[in-house]
Structures are given as structure tokens and as C-alpha cells.
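In this section we walk through a basic example: taking a raw amino acid sequence and producing a predicted 3D structure, encoded as C-alpha cells. The instruction is simple. Fold the sequence below.
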Amino acid sequence: MKGEDRVSLDRIDQRILAELTKNARVSHAELATKVLLSRNAVRQRVDRMERQGYIQGYTVVAGPPGQGPVSAFLMVYRKDRVRGSDVITVLRSIPEVVLCDVVSGDFDLLVRLEARSLERIQEIWEQIAALPGVTDTVTAMTLSSVIRRGAGSPAGTPAEGAAAGTPAEGTGATE
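The resulting C-alpha cell sequence is shown next.
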């Protein structure tokens, strides 16, 4: 945060985030029109939200026009939950891993993959399943998305415009 106190988001910030979640390439001038501020005020707010971590990155989803990414959830069972950080290190290096949570229950990692094709999902699954620290995996393919919120969006701000089965554009975060 570079010496700057983290400020909570007001309604205008939330609207800016919602618009950026729908289209991360929207111009500051167009955003200004939508939120009724000057272009410079919008630029300052976006810059502040980037510095404070509310906006952690912008994502490009490559692929043929009209075809959204394929997504799947991978539940990973590690041999050693406490000292299994080598598995997480590998997961961090795979760009298609958009979420990795340590969870309670039978399995201990919940991983969301978003890839350009089913074949790429399978390649990633094979890579993860072959890791020395992994004992088993369970995969669930996403059939459709009915609610999609961006990583930087405030709770309750849906990524509007996300059609069922198609993730919203501009969502995602980088570390």
C-alpha cells in the first residue's frame, strides 16, 4: 500500500469496479460518464484502488471469438497437509489456476481452473495428479455459471453481463 491507508470503497468505487469487471478495457472517459464524475476523478480512484489492492490485475482470456474458457474445479488430496507447500508452489506457477483455497474436509485444496480448452484442463490435471505430494484428485467440470463475481468486486456486486456458461470478461486477479 506504499504508506497509504486502505480506504473502504464507497458506492462510486463499487460502481467503477462493477464496470471494470464487465469490461476491463473501458476508458476512463466512458467510466466517468457512467458514474457521473470527471475523467480525472475516475483515473485517480482507479489508481488508488490499484495501489490499495482492490484492483489486483487485469486478465486477458484468449481463445476463438464467442468461445469462453472451459473451467473446472479440482479437489486435491495431499500426502501431508502441513508440509505440502511444494504442491501449492507448483499451482502458483500454472496461469490457468485462478483460485486455490485450503479447505477442511476430506480433500484439502480446492482449485479452480480456467483454460482455453478441455485438452488444456486435462494437461493441467495430469500435471497436478503426477506431483509427488498429491495422493488423489477429484475433478468437477463447470457446466454453466449462473453467478459470477470478480475477485476484486465487493460482495453483492455481480459481474453483470455474464451469460450462463460464460464467465464475465475482465474478472480475475494476479498475485
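Looking at the output, two observations stand out. The helical segments are 11-22, 28-35, 39-51, 85-92, 118-129. The longest helix spans residues 39-51. In the next section we compare this with other chains.
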